[in-house]
Amino acid sequence: MLIIVARYSESGLTVDFDNFVGCLIRLETLFNTFKTLDKDESGEVELTMLEIRVRLQGADKQEQLKLVLFKISDDGKCIIVDEDKCLKVKDLNGEEDVFRKIVNMMPTDDCRYALYDCSWESKDSPKEDLVFIMWAPEHSTIKKKMKYASSKQYIKATFQGLKFEWQVNDMSDAKDSSVFIDKLGGRGVVKRLEGREV
Fold first, then answer.
1. How far apart are CA 198 and CA 191, in angstroms?
2. pTM above 0.70, yes or no
């Protein structure tokens, strides 16, 4: 409890609204993860350090997550994983256009947040970076766009190690990989994206 207070409180041990929402998202994620791991519903989970590191990714490279979509729940009270819209490395094997596959996972008339574990190469070295995606297509309602926009900073604050953000407001932002490559530094920097030359 003291760690939560130290992380989310201001001076004088007060918690403002932004930190309160950030704390709720973090706690919701922790409780959902615990429920997933507590298969026998005993209220206890025992993990080794290695299991903790690979819990959601899987020890096998093919089982590692590449894309996770998040949505605001139907009651509008929390942000949850859109479980039907996750991709693992194995889901992209033999895929000619990984970028197009990712775009096709997104709804055309609704908003989403997403985390994309992007593999790319510069002229110097291969890289793997977490990319935060804010998906708010033109056919989504104004109300949904506003709700997702107002919650964006809270969900971003819960993810450590974000290096890039890609915001899609209409399909011209996602028509091909060029707009996304510009977010990574442009064609002068990016030589390969998901194993393909750009």
1. 6
2. no
